[in-house]
Structures are given as C-alpha cells and as structure tokens.
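Could you please consider the sequence and fold following this short note?
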Amino acid sequence: MEMPQDGSRPATKDGKSTPVWRATFDAFERPIADASESWLQSETFMDGLALVLKLQRRANRELRRGLRIWFGAWNLSTGSDVERLENQIANLERQVRQLRLELERSSDPGPLLASTARRRSANRDSR
C-alpha cells in the first residue's frame, strides 16, 4: 500500500482509511518477510537446524548422565531409580491381581457367594 502524494491516508478495500503506522510497518515488513521466508526454506537453514537439534539432544543426554553420576556419588535418587521402582511396583500389582484371580477361580464358589451375601446384608443393616 503506497502513501498518496497529497498526504492523505490510503484507503482499504472497504473504503476505510488505514493508520499511517500500518503503511510504514507494511513498507518495512514485506521485504524482510520475503527474505526471511526464503532463508527459512533453504537447505542451509534446514541443515543448520538439524545440527542444532542434534547438539541439543546430545548436550541434554550428557547433562543427565553427569547428574546421574553426581547424584549417585551423594546417594540421591535419580529419575532412572524412580522409574525402575515404579516399574517394579506395577509388576507386583499385576502379579497380585493375577494371583487374586487365580485364587477366586480355584476356590469353591459357594463360600465366596455366601460371604458376599453376608457382607451385603450387613451393609443394608448398618444403613
């Protein structure tokens, strides 16, 4: 959008005039945007970005390794220690659930049904 020579504000498609700052902004922004878009789509930029991401992952991995060693020296728990304990607990819960199911299948259903009926009647009586 070019500024008119008479100093008035340029009109938009709907007939309203645009602010002067907008015309100034557009005059600077368009060439900068065109240049940056072509740079961002270049192979050089993509190669550089890939390299930076690889370096970032490597630095993160090395930092975690160093912290694990440091925490180990001070006998503090690390994320991998907590994760290992969470996995062990989950495995134990699965085993308990499986043992409970096997016990229910192998035992006589008669006593189980009777104890369930007794619990239900006791719950009704306590209300």
